[in-house]
Amino acid sequence: MSFVVLAEMGDKTQLLAMAFATRYKATTVLWAVFWATLLNHLLAVVVGNYLTHFIPIQYIQIAAVSFILFGLWTIRGDELNNEDKRFSFSPFWTVAIAFFIAEMGDKTQLATIALAAKYQSIIPVWLGRGDDALGDTLIRSFIHTLLQLKPLPATIIRYNAGVKLAARDSAALDDLQQLEKAGADTLVCGTCVNCFGLGDQVAVGHISNMYDIAEAMAGAARLVRP
Amino acid sequence: MMEPQKFAVFLFPSVSHAMKAEKILRDRGIAHKLIPIPRHISEDCGACLRVGIDQQDQVAAILQGWVTWERIVPL
């Protein structure tokens, strides 16, 4: 996130926003900028994600080729300066379209492409939120590490999307099975299993309910959460 | 179930490298496991990719050119 914010400072689009703000209502400009940028970066994320299917990551991160291409494009001219008199669109669309074009090949867009290529997930990178793939890695690492704790946990409870860890195709399955074999009581929230349609796929632990789960939690000397 | 088996771990420059490598192995159907880096190898917080020691060379060949790793350590 900070990477993209820094890349945006003093950018040509910042100047463009100031120019538009003198002419239109600030809120119109802000919304137009917001939507144009969001759309543009969604495109960037999709492209970045798609590229990794064909090109090794090192080459994308360099991004040199695209910088050169867009540099040439800039020399040819984006005609941003000549658009003054030809506004046949509403202020919103004028600003949005101008931004969408100005952002094309921008260093921010390239940064987004590179980030998306690196992290390979569309929604998290686009919206700048936490990375689900990383969360997935962390919870599996956590469960693996539980096996090495002394004493072992007496009970392991999985609820909400955590029940997916108990499914047949879960990458954490063998660790959970080993924990169960070593004596840990492993509870899976029945409501959650139904909600995710995993009724016939629970491969470790036993389906439980809120009474057992709440009692186990309340009776535990210590609760550890990932 | 798990038979006693010998493993090697691939260590990467970052967790995103490890995740990328995992994705490649998953797509190729090669048995592997992403685990926290064992303490005796490094005190750093990180993830590494554990594979059967017999698969080590095959995995290295697959990842070559797609993901860089730092070193391979037998467990």
Please tell me about this protein's structure:
The complex is a heterodimer of chains A (226) and B (75). By secondary structure, chain A is mainly alpha-helical. Helices cover 60% and strands 5% of the residues of chain A. In chain A, helix 1 runs antiparallel to helix 7. The longest helix of chain A has 26 residues, at 26-51. Chain B is 29% helix and 25% strand. In chain B, strands 2-3-1-4 form a four-stranded antiparallel sheet, with helices on one face. Chain B is globular. The two termini of chain B are 19 Å apart. The mean pLDDT of chain B is 91. The chains are: A mainly alpha (226), B alpha+beta (75).
| Structural Rg of chain B | 11 Å
Fraction of residues in H or I helices of chain A: 55-70%
Report the helical percentage of chain B: 25-40%
Question: What average pLDDT do the residues of chain B reach?
Answer: 91
For the termini of chain B, the CA-CA separation is 19 Å
Q: N-to-C SSE series of chain B?
A: EHEEHE
**Strand content bin of chain B:** 25-35%
- Number of DSSP helices of chain B? 2
Largest interface: A-B, 17 and 18 residues
| Uncertain parts of chain A | none
Strand runs of chain A, count: 3
Strand order in the largest sheet of chain A: 1-2-3
Low-confidence stretches of chain B: none
Percentage of β-strand residues of chain A:
5-15%
Descriptive keywords:
A: mainly alpha, three-stranded parallel β-sheet, B: 75 residues, alpha+beta, 25% strand, globular
Topology record:
The complex is a heterodimer of chains A (226) and B (75).
Chain A: H1 2-8, H2 12-23, H3 26-51, H4 57-62, H5 64-76, H6 91-103, H7 107-119, H8 122-127, H9 132-146, E1 155-158, H10 173-181, E2 185-189, H11 190-195, E3 206-208, H12 210-219
Parallel strand pairs in A: 1-2, 2-3
Helix pairs in contact in A: 1-7, 2-3, 2-6, 3-6, 3-7
Chain B: E1 7-11, H1 15-28, E2 33-36, E3 47-52, H2 56-63, E4 71-74
Antiparallel strand pairs in B: 1-3, 1-4, 2-3
